[in-house]
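Quick bug: BgTH12-07784 output formatted oddly.
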Amino acid sequence: MKALFAASIAGLPTLLLLVPTAYGLDHYRCESKQLFDYSVICGYAEQASFSQIQGGDPFFVSGNTYGAYRFTSHLPDGTPKNYLIQTVSVEPYRRLFEYNDGKWKLCNLI
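Here's what came back:
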């Protein structure tokens, strides 16, 4: 019985990753047209922490922000772009932002 319960618990995170895919939510598209797979952002979001939240981060009016994670990615032309992931209390539980023109701009989940 314990082995069955442990196997069920171990498989739960994998099933949770599939939920957005079932709804057709496969990618984040940012203002620069940069695409990120939902699963990649989920992986980065696992590194989000409350200590990484900064004063200039976007405010989330629909719920609570639990953590933040920042990373830099390069566009096809080699231009570096800064990104912010917020883990929040409302589906899809992760918000991705791209830094453009001095502001964090929300990327769309498509």
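Actually, after a second look the formatting is fine. The mean pLDDT is 85. Closing.
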